[in-house]
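Risk register update: the risk that structure generation would not scale has been downgraded. Supporting records follow, first protein first.
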Amino acid sequence: MNQAIRGKTAIVGVGTAGCGEAHGFSPIELLGQASLKAIADAGLKLSDIDGVFAATSSHAFPTLSVCEYLGIKPKYVDGTNVGGSSFEMHLLQATLALEAGLCNAALICYGSNQRTAGGRLVSMSEPQWHETFYKPRHPITSYSLAASRHMHQFGTTREQLAEVAVAARGWANLNPEAFARGPLSIADVMASRMVSDPLSSADCCLVTDGGGACVLVRAERARDLPNKPVYFLGAAGAQWHRSIQAMPDLTVTAASESCPRAMEMAGVSHADVDLVMLYDAFTINTILFLEDLGFCPKGEGGRFVEGGAIAPGGKLAVNTNGGGLSCVHPGMYGMFLIVESVRQIRGEAGERQLKQCDIALLHGNGGTLSSQVTAFLGSAAAL
């Protein structure tokens, strides 16, 4: 695998806006607020941005809308939308554009007012004509199918799924920006309202508002900017299906393909990883991804998370912001994996700060376990 772009770009600014409830703000306004914060955090001006990478659930032509709203005329844009994993893919695409000299400062951005606009946990990411006859609820029915199959095939239990939600809440309780805080036990998860068997309401991600953004520049420029650079180490994407009925195996995602390629590009091993940020739209996601990313054998994910293994103080730091389950989930969550990874690598995560965080694995998920994108970010020590 080509490592020519490893360490050649760095994230120099991040920003969020309206995470939780942002009454009165539109998606583009939240995106704009987060973008301006990220640009200011980078020590740059809006006029410095000449590359824009955006995916939203609100705009058919996201870069046209974003650039008009921000009042900029970039040299390069990319509106690739593969669902919630789009932003991890944008890290790779922005790096390629920067390295090719197509732009000098790249903005990756997202915004949604899904909660205050009355949004519910629904998705049009499925080609719904395949399953409409059965009256599924998208996307949760698809994820419940994966959970049911995993339970049948490997003996995974609802209590093990609940461990994921409880761990996420444990991290959220250390994060003042998290939307859902307070006590949550395995018993609480088990007693929560069933939504799509075997997934209960506590197994489902939040529905929130929120905007997020980051700014990348070439590594040599990053060293002259105010913040500690967070370097791009590698990334890869894979997709095997769109509709859940076309998924080859409900217990194996394309993360099993994306991770090895991304890891080879990044030149890292599992032992090198200090932080794992996973797209936890549902509790089954975390279990599937821990397996497919290689942190435990296939079928062992439920047992791997038992006993608080991925909670604060556990053996593997997973979703330290509280994840989509307890921190923020405004429709497409992948942008917030980047923000938390940058804060941890910079040492800016407050009470939840890891003692050592030089390499972060970010894994984005789009559609119904469809688009899988793995990325690695690191500190200067990781180069």
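Supporting record for the second protein:
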Amino acid sequence: MSSTTPIADQVAALAESMAAQAPAEALEAFGAEQAELDAAGVPAGVAAAGTEMPDASLLDAHGESTTLKQARDGRPAVVVFYRGAWCPYCNVALRTYQAELKPELDRLGVALIAVSPQKPDGSLTMAETNDLAYTVLSDPGNRIGRALGILTRPSDQAQQAQASLGLDLTEVNADGTYDIVMPTVAVVDASGVLRWIDVHPNYTTRTEPAEILAALAETLR
């Protein structure tokens, strides 16, 4: 596995850059939201390892219908749930997974799949902007996220801050709501059973590639 900067370090640099550019009011709103998310922690009722991985009718980046099962194509998979192409932290994480995770997953015969609630054109933007060579899907209505217990939505304050920066989630989400997923990585075995799940309520933190590979090693033993 190639060695690049940990996601946490990239996020710290990103936060420093944003602090110098974004309006103070917006930063304050996002900071308050992150503190609330930290305090709340992982929600009760998140799907447990050993249960069947939920599935639903999804859309690929070109708007064609598919499912997680179809995307896995009989393989184990690492499924990454992210908020959308508009989220700078998501871009950092998905780029890092392309560079550090995908080569090793290809060697192991494991699929890498990213899922968000955004419209397919947002998935295409995410894939093209970050040169992603793995499957990027849209889950209209967050059906898989809801079944996994990782559904959330920005606070009212954060929604106002997003609006001040030109972002309206009801415009980018496929179902026209503010609902998004907590950034989450799930390891699914070849039979479709959830073997490991790592949920990050605070969206500024992400699962590092090494953690995913360690979980995958346990799954494939």
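Residues 7-220 form a domain with the Glutaredoxin fold (CATH 3.40.30.10). On this basis the risk owner (M.S.) recommends closing the item.
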